[in-house]
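Predict the 3D structure for this chain.
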Amino acid sequence: MVHRRSQLRAEHILQKRLFAQRDAGKVKIMWDHVLHDIEGNDSGVTDIYITHVQSGKKTRVPLDGVFIAIGHTPNTTIFNNQLVMDENGYIQLSPGTTATTEPGVFAAGDVADPIYRQAVTSAGFGCMAALDAERYLNQSST
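Done. Predicted structure below.
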C-alpha cells in the first residue's frame, strides 16, 4: 500500500485490520510516498514507480496489480454557493429525507453520504430521492 502521509485517517477498525495484515506479512505499507507511474505489458501491470514525498527519492516496485483509491472527497463543487454543505463538502439534507436546503432539489449517494459511501446505499438513496422528488412535484401541482 502506498500512502502519501505517515498515518491513516480511515476508521480505526479498518486501520486495525490493515495493520493485522501487515503484521502477518501480507501487506507492505509505503508511508510518505506517492504513485507517479504504472508500467505493464500485454499480460498486465508489471511495476509501479513511487516517490518519497520528503526526499524525492524514486523507487521501482515490481508487482502484478494496482488498485487506486484516492480518498472520499465528494464531487460537489458545482453546487458551491447554491446548496448548504458541511465542512467536508457533503450536501446537507433535511433529517430523514433527501431534500436539500433548496426547495425541489434532492441529493443522493456519495454527495450526501459521508458515512457509508457504498454503491448499494447510493442506489437506495437514489430511490429515496426519486420518491421525494415525485412527492414534491405532486404537492407543487395541486
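The beta strands are 33-41, 44-52, 58-62.
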